[in-house]
Records
---
Amino acid sequence: MTDWRMENLDSVCEMRPPKSEARRRLSGSEPVSFVPMHDLGVDSMYFEAREQRALKEVEGSYTYFADDDVLLAKITPCFENGKLGIARGLTNGIGFGSSEYFVLRPDRKLLPQFLYYFLSRESFREEGAKVMTGAVGHRRVPKEFIESYAIPLPSVDEQRRVVAMLDQALDGIAKAKRNNEASLANVDQLLDSTRFGLLDEIGSRAEWLTLQELLDRGWILSHLDGNHGSEYPRKEEFVTKGVPYISANCIDDEKVDMSLAKYLLPQRAVRIRKGVAQSGDVLFAHNATVGPVAVLETAEPCVILGTSLTYYRCNRANISPRYLGHYMRSRKFREQYEQIMRQSTRNQVPITKQREFFHLIPNIKDQIKVAAELDTLELKRLSLRELYQRKLVLLNQLKQSLLWKAFSGELTDARGLAA
């Protein structure tokens, strides 16, 4: 790469082109594309602009861009996740979108596709994440970091060659990832279908009971969430060891991942009187991330729940926690809380509404039998999921290796891609 030179991005890109361009080209009533953050992809060179709005509706507070501009998310976690893409096929060639975009317009010395691949490197995201500024949850990459970031720049012909080789190689990786993800989805669908079939089979000899009826019968001993009111812990009160404190993000693959827990000192934890779970409780994520369910299995005497979780404590003479967990992951239960969420703008299922939901409760022998069958299938699913996840990691490592070679000038021929 002796003929490659290093250039700062702001010397080969126009940063944040002016909105006056759009105003010169269009009247306020004419349509333009609108691209919110969720439409900017990951691992996709071009994003789809699904929405249109009149220019006058968006020109004030949104970010302007045009065809062939490169969009890069600046805010956490979108930046770290790799939200990035090239604008193409915009309505009237013009788009507006989130204020959390960097817009980079390459000059004649830089191809948008070459820039896209350069910004796709994990090393770039890691460096950007280290210099983020702002409050937790709203941290952003400074524009000075982007402007002064150096890109190795060969001739345009060499850029075309590198882009063509990466297109070919990464298309194969992308297809392998799609096939892998489809296989993973098929495994999940198989478990869901089996769960539905088993529940349907026992339906004729089971009762449909609301949670409130189960509480009244004493079959559910307690049902509480982690709404601690004035006793909600402050950030500085969390420590590295003590009484575990968990939120919805700790439920992963239908298990509680205690490695993601925070901790409170025992003398602080004792002030919290409700939302204190114990081993065997069924946990339901009811706020922000709605739906994940797990049976808490822990040697800890108690675990404090955050505001996003609710526990269901079973009377095991009448209800198996394993069975209840499987039922609450089923379509029969899911459809009930999804209906509630469609009626609200908030992504949550209040504890009062949960008590209106129906549960399919067979006799305890049937519960244990169904739970055992589903546990066996769940173990197989987890084993396959781990295998597929390892494949995805290897595919991503291969992609990053190819990108490293590309921007080190080592892609000399097709054999370099497979090295």
---
Amino acid sequence: MDPGSFATGEDVEVDPPHRLVQTMKALWSPVVASYPATTITYEIQPRGEICRLRVTHSGLTEDMSDEIWGGWPQILSSLKSLLETGESLHLAIPPEAVEQWRAEKGTAGTAA
């Protein structure tokens, strides 16, 4: 499945290797598509032989769906595993979520 069909966005600020700011407009369900775009800021700070990564997701409100709030712990855990071991956690969108999304978009049965 095309990852771009789940969210869109653009780079707002790029300062390699220290900072990246992007917008994100979630599209993976009708509920999240109704929310305004949010902003994700990645900041990398050297700490001797290691680096500190700070991820700030702004523009969120308490009334937003759990679909928006739940992903960062998994994504960052997978990134940590990738950097430490060379293997990500191989996270995947549950097939039933993909099928529900396709049904709502009218693309059920379309190949990924």
---
Amino acid sequence: MVDLKTNVRVRAEGFGITAKSILTFVMLVYDSRQGSGGFALVAFAAGQLAYSVVMFLTYVASFGWGIIRPKRPSSPRNTIGGYFDTEIMQLSFTMTLQSLVKHFLTEGDKMILSSFSPLHDQGGYALAVNYGSLVARIIFQPIEETLRVFFSRILGGETQKKKSDDHRVSLAQSVIMLQSLLSIQISLSIILVIFGSASLPILLPLLLPKQYLSTSAPQVLGAWIWYIPVLAVNGGLEAFLSSVATPKDLNNQSRWMIGFSAIYIGSAIVFYSVGLGDASLVYANVVNLSARIIYSLRYATNFFNKPKIPMFRWQDTLPSRSLCVVSGLSAAVIQLSQRRLKADEIASHLGNRALLNSSVLLHVGVCGSLALLCLGTWWRTSGRYLSFSSFLKGKVE
């Protein structure tokens, strides 16, 4: 990642996911023919193992076996056993602890689901989450990893950079990148929520098998429309935090993560009690990530404003008034079109054949035209001004 050798990484992950898919599929087919049904978890574990082994071997083939041989640090004084640097070891323990906390946050929905939801709906929830997480895996994950590389390079060794002439330029570049990213995410999130919620009832009969339409899957996917924007904003902010944080900052974040876990569990229980069903887990994650966003925003504000020169203002990331007005009017028109044309009811009744229905096509046309209007408004009012060079010039001067 740091050397930007994307071709090596794509090849390793491509071979890994291919090996994982083939092995898991073969074992499940064998299990189904045997009729035992006892190899499902083993197939999943074997697939994960195949993914790891193939990725490891691909990287070794690219970089050579020498990269995995233990090497003694240049200064053996601050080491454990002559090989492990004490500072890096402490940082590793901190990151491991944080990974454990994040794992419980990530897998907590499955634990809560098994306690509150019947088995019939658990399958629908799993299908909906897998559909929803495609966006996170395909779009958000590469962005977050690129941001980590960017912020680590430009702000790495901040204490040394404070003595150099380009310190302020580095801070300005980072502010521009973070504010531009958040501004784009927030503005496009408004458009996604409005038009995603309107399009989902028409898309569900096309995306989901018929037997899943009677489960909690449609409800969960509807909640995911609200979850995706929060997931995007949190990912960018935590990528920044993890890139510039000291071990002390990471320890503080880990302690706060425990509190966020309690917020998530409490929110899920409350939402279940008011009858939101399996979508409660998604809405609880929205509450949890919102708390984490507030924490990361506060950290970013303090980090950039340390030199007594206010540079980062979260208010600058908010969408323009024009976009808010146009988006609000678009939402009202969409609701009116939905009531008149009843496209969701037609799509639910006709399934794939709804694509040939005139009322459905008219409603889709209305939504598409308004979506283009909102995107044009965003571009005219703020999108075209998110230029790295022009922002940098204004910040530095």
---
Amino acid sequence: MLVWVTFGTTSSLARGRKEVARLSTDDALWKLDVRALGYEAPAVREWGPYVPLPPVGPLCFLAAGRIVVTFTTRTTPAALSRREDIDTPSLPLRLHALFVDSKTGQLQTEQEWPTGSDRSRITRASSGFVVVTPERLALFSPEIMPLKELVLSEREEAELASFRPQASPGAKFLLIRWEARTGEQELYKLVNLSDLQVVMYWRSNLGGHVGAVSDNGMVTAGSWEEATKIGKPGNLTRSPCPSTDKHCLAGVFVSQDALFGVAPPHAPGTLHQEFSMHLKRTDGTIIFDQELPSGEVIEPIYPAVGGERFAVAVYRGKGGSRLLDIAPHFSLDRIIVYDLTSQRWIYSLQGKNRGLKSISALALSPDGSLLALIDQEGRLEVYPIPATTLPAGTGGPGSRPGFGR
């Protein structure tokens, strides 16, 4: 009996309002003010944008030419509910979803679900999409019809904190992590998104936490004391890191056999030294390993993935003082898209040219032909990614990728 998933209703935030996308005068296909529909972007801090989001972000391309924007709002419950009473709509938050036509920018419909976490989101699946909350997962068809649900918040999980879901690049698996309130242990569940079956359930001591999941169910795990290893949960046998580098962090999967990562300066917490980014295969083969120009960082670390492409946002810092240990002020410099097949950076969206100071969400369409973002003003913008590549010297192994202006 699908009690909870049928509670998903038309959102009350903007019910009855008709929103029309404003056609753009630049190369954006369209722009839509989602802040007017209830979306609230995270605040901006001195060291780049503050994006307190799990890897499953607030922006996602779905099948049938749709984009979904998700956010949470707080509601006042009519009565106090018991922790185990998760079938009632009295949970303190509402997960709102705006379903938008990816071609025209027209708002098609709005839905909402009760949840207990502001990290609740929606991720795509092969047969539709999945509503992800710490209480339940719910699989829906592309027509937003409930198909199946999986209860997550059993008594044991109810005592845990830091709910953090992460989808594999092709949205075949969902890895969910809870951290014990005592800060001594983590609990994991690996879920097949096509049928909401729990593939594996295990515990891990903090300091050796799992970092990423691939489309074939492989995971990575590592810590500052031990280099990252890859394998099936409980059987991490391979390492993509050099044997001499015990601090190697492999990054996150951007395909079934490739990992993208960002390495901070050698001195933790130092904002004035160079960061580097790398792309490597799971067997350790390096595709590229490049330092970012001084003053540049990549946030959020988790890239947007679409088919054989991924995108990252590069921020540039200005001002600040290394002597006085004052952080620079960061703003968006560019968004760059990498093509795994050709091993080239194929697209660069310049922030300054389009008035983009920061973004709170970034996504690529499943075929990698569209890039969507939400800017500092709460505008959802969609850009086509051309088939042509960037000029020679701006991408590929041995070059300074994405630095062309």
